[in-house]
């Protein structure tokens, strides 16, 4: 379960970086505002590197040599990307993020036995990555309070879309199970975890996403960051619960 979670979070964070990697790079000309500080990219890529290594070493890690290779490639791209974003004009920085995201998406695909489960895993990755990225973006405003709010709004939008996609994926999985089973046939632990998965993992993040958006609208970025901390906790608990419920086929 730890390996699955690590791959999903790493893939989601890499994908979210693509939303913030503009053509004008992180070092704009006079009068221009960056979409994100270079330090944001470096922090993200170091986190992705650590998660890829954790997925390699954790119990239940790589399920085949191809997956090991993809995780190693993702870690290498993240490490090279970190170096690139420390240099002037970040040469090849965006390309390395794209390669890292593709490698992680491939590694995620090799962990899923069916297309439907892979789509659910991608939605999970997007949700985890958007929540974590939005929270980390909030911290940027503590050191650069005049920075444009566009990156934060973009990540909050990604979080909202990911929540919808994740809810649909889990709803389809639950509906498919309910068509051929009775709910009283579920084990007691699944009955207890199912409401937690939906209330904490989906309803909670939806409420905090809206609250963070309203706080950002009035440029209360510190409040938005604190709310996003709660959103990250909700998303983590929800997705870990979802991984537990997959054994009963009531979650994607």
What does this 3D model show about the protein?
The chain has 252 residues and is mostly helical. It folds into two domains: 1-111, Four Helix Bundle (Hemerythrin (Met), subunit A), CATH 1.20.120; 115-252. 75% of the residues lie in helices and 0% in strands. The chain is built from eight helices and no strands. Helix 1 crosses helix 5 (115-143) and helix 3 (65-84) packs antiparallel against helix 4 (93-109). The longest helix is centred in the middle third of the chain and has 31 residues, at 150-180. It is flat and about 60 Å long. The protein starts with a helix and ends in a 7-residue tail after the last helix.
Question: In terms of topology, how is this protein built?
Answer:
Blueprint: H1 2-18, H2 38-57, H3 65-84, H4 93-109, H5 115-143, H6 150-180, H7 188-217, H8 221-245
Helix pairs in contact: 1-2, 1-4, 1-5, 2-3, 3-4, 5-6, 5-8, 6-7, 7-8
